Amino acid sequence: MADPAPAPAGDRPREAGGSRVARRLAELGIVLPRRSVPPALYSPYQRAGRRVSVAGQPPYLDGAVRYRGKVGAELSLDDGIDSARLSALNVLAHLLHACEGDLDRVACCVDMIVFVNAAPHFHDVHKVADGASALLHQVFDPLGPPARSSLGCAVLPMDIATEVQASFYLR
């Protein structure tokens, strides 16, 4: 099998020792996934001045949904947390492109909404959302965790387990 083509420059964190966030990603062993193509008619992100809004991102890995089903039924709490983390990694992949490869331009995550495909009896949606919050906090420390809402949903598109939407303010 051939090696995958390198990601375009706007899809890779800037390195050469100058990027604090790129170094932090490397320290954490995090490789951002390739940006996904939206499955419907919307833009994955929009920039308005120094604000970037990233549309809800599913738990894609290698171009496919990694976590499907309801948390608290087909999926465990730990699966849900991992799904939210993966959804947040997909948010970062689009944010990186919006920042032209330089995540050091991020001043803060203004807000984040984590949607969880939850079984009716599942009441730990906030714990699932911590998977996304913890990732952003780890990557952008010392900016702190974002303002966040977490919602349990009866259904999400394509039966995905989580979807993470976030807005960022740039320097």
Chain-wise SSE layout:
Layout (H helix, E strand, L loop, with lengths): L19 H9 L16 E4 L2 E7 L2 E2 L2 E2 L11 H22 L7 E12 L7 H16 L6 E7 L8 E9 L1
Radius of gyration from CA coordinates: 15 Å
Strand arrangement, major sheet: 1-2-7-5-6
- What is the residue-mean pLDDT, rounded to a whole number? 90
Query: What count of helical segments does DSSP give?
Result: 3
Which structural class is indicated by helix and strand composition? alpha+beta
Q: How many runs of DSSP E, i.e. beta strands?
A: 7
The arrangement of helices and strands along the chain is HEEEEHEHEE
Low-confidence stretches are 1-9
Q: What is the straight-line distance between the termini?
A: 41 Å
Report the sheet with the most strands, covering strand number, pairing sense and barrel closure: 5 strands, mixed
Helix content: 25-40%
Which term fits the overall shape? Answer: globular
Percentage of β-strand residues: 25-35%
Which key terms come to mind for this protein?
171 residues; 5-stranded mixed sheet; 3 helices; 27% helix; globular
